[in-house]
Fold these 2 entries.
Entry 1:
Amino acid sequence: MENPEQIHQRRIRYRGTHPASFEAKYKEQQPDKYPETIEKVMKKGDTPAGMHRSICVKEILEILQIKPGQTGLDATLGYGGHTIEMLKCLDQKGHLYAIDTDPIELPHTQERLAKLGYDAKILTTQNMNFSDIDQLVAKSGLFDFVLADLGVSSMQIDNPKRGFSYKTDGPLDLRMNPEMGMPASYRLKAMSQAEIEGMLIENADEPHAKEIAKAIILEYQKGNSISTTSQLQKIIVEALKFIPPAIRDEETKKACQRSFQALRIDVNHELDALYTFLEKLPKVLAKGGRIAILSFHSGEDRLVKKAFKYYHKEGIYQEIAMDLIRPSLEEQNSNSRARSAKLRWAIKA
Ligand SMILES: C[S@@+](CC[C@H](N)C(=O)[O-])C[C@H]1O[C@@H](n2cnc3c(N)ncnc32)[C@H](O)[C@@H]1O
């Protein structure tokens, strides 16, 4: 006789052409095994799950002018894309230090780089915040070149367990280093309405900051918690129902993106870390040392521009970028995450 459990087993529902969850994107996470899947995703201007596409690679290498035998720092290792390109320029001579504050992604990148043959002779990787760059220089010596590619990696955004995105539900966390600080849900609960509004304006120029802050506080007053990414998204959607229907969807989507960005910057103290890094940079660069910084929103770019200008005026940088460098139109079209990228450089006197 047939097993009754088998008879009544429900057929697995077809979920459409796109994988429903991060875990389901198994093909995209095995680029060696499924190159055609990776190619298809990239052709659409998207980034395959578990991968990060490096931005402005050609422009950055032109700025840094890396030569074999030099010592350099990748202050934001991420997936290791820029690191690999810089290592190629060193041609097994010299040394590259590569750091990242994220203890979750770092071991995966370390493994990937080791498989490519980059061992301790040429590469040192370390889990650290770039605001502590002066501690590293004690063992590395001064740097001939430094790169910082700010913000988050695609791997961080795509992993719902880390709470960086509302596209798939997850805990409202948003920490690049979950071993430090407090998750976004705790941070939000600790803020007043005025503080939330200020955070949304300062970190993301959010035009609907007032309405969103009011709706968040109202939710707490009702006795509800905001502990997941979709709970916060729902509150923002509800708060912006007053927007005319013709533009509401687009405007709400942007407000959600900006609000999550603002909260992420707050939770990770991103502007503080960048400020400290910019302040310490002149002391860790060798004479003629070159620095390239890739930022993704106006708050970051303003800080970079101001610091470079200040140290240039002081004679500490001999030359700085006069104009902002943007990714080529071709790159912006082929990688949606490149559209907001802003690149600046400086050279130590
Ligand atoms: C845009 S990704 C870098 C991608 C990388 N350039 C590549 O080609 O794969 C930014 C990385 O910087 C890290 N990061 C952000 N702020 C940091 C900080 N203050 N100190 C160190 N790492 C940081 C993030 O954890 C993330 O992995």
Entry 2:
Amino acid sequence: MVEIRGAQEGDEAGLRELDAATWSSRVSPAPSPDPDRPFLERFDAGGVLVAVAGEELVGYGILAPWLPLQSAAHVVELRGLAVAPGRQGEGIGARLLEAAISRVRTAGARRLVLRVLASNPGARRLYERHGFEVEGTFREAFLLEDAYVDDLMMALDLSRWSTSPPRS
Ligand SMILES: CC(C)(COP(=O)(O)OP(=O)(O)OC[C@H]1O[C@@H](n2cnc3c(N)ncnc32)[C@H](O)[C@@H]1OP(=O)(O)O)[C@@H](O)C(=O)NCCC(=O)NCCS
């Protein structure tokens, strides 16, 4: 059984491992993660959700303020979402995303935003199925493996849906 909960200090090693295991230039424009770089220190630990199956950490989602401005306090960004390669396709990503949406909705946020590479159709589909819409495109934002890739800005308008959006 997979449980979704807030991250704890003891999750650090599992988070670093998962970060490295899920990185590829198809899903991230950043270089492959440095295994010595702390994971939780980089984010407000309260904004990190993890999916655990027994002792094993099988997924994470990261929520953070979009900008450090009071005028944008109603906008939260999903900075990362990942599921262990061997556990993808089981619905864990959807559960993490639903937990993230529920958390920001409860906190009173108005918009949940994220960026996703156009070269990542699986993630795009997951977000679209949960009501996110593409609101902007940085065309050819990244040169990845000799190809220019668009960066898509997606957003979920939390003021529009009081529960879940209709699934398409
Ligand atoms: C994107 C990711 C988090 C999805 O997690 P997951 O647990 O595999 O997703 P789920 O099993 O919950 O699937 C949810 C939906 O997304 C779709 N989906 C997931 N991966 C897919 C893929 N590779 N291709 C097509 N559809 C995909 C599923 O079909 C499912 O749709 P459905 O509800 O119509 O069946 C996971 O694939 C991952 O970690 N990828 C690498 C990191 C990444 O791309 N993160 C997102 C960066 S923006």
